[in-house]
Amino acid sequence: MDTRFPVINLPLWRADALVLHFWLSTVDLDDVPVEDESQRQALRDLLTALDQTDVVDADDAEIVAAHDLVARPAV
Fold first, then answer.
1. Using CA atoms, how far apart are residues 16 and 49, in angstroms rounded to an integer?
2. How many Å is the maximal CA-CA distance in the chain?
3. Whole domain around residue 21: which residue ranges?
4. Is 4 a domain residue?
């Protein structure tokens, strides 16, 4: 690992990871408004990291359920 680019561990609710992965996989990142190109690259890096997890194996029903869970009203 290149020590100039330290890695963090980010605990993330699986449903959030599914929703983020689905969105990042389906959106045209060139159309996402950013203030700096580094923000777009960070989204690509996040997609790459999520692609290395088991969220890529989620079926449509699991993705729909994740969207429902994440969109729940705040308590």
1. 14
2. 42
3. 14-70
4. no
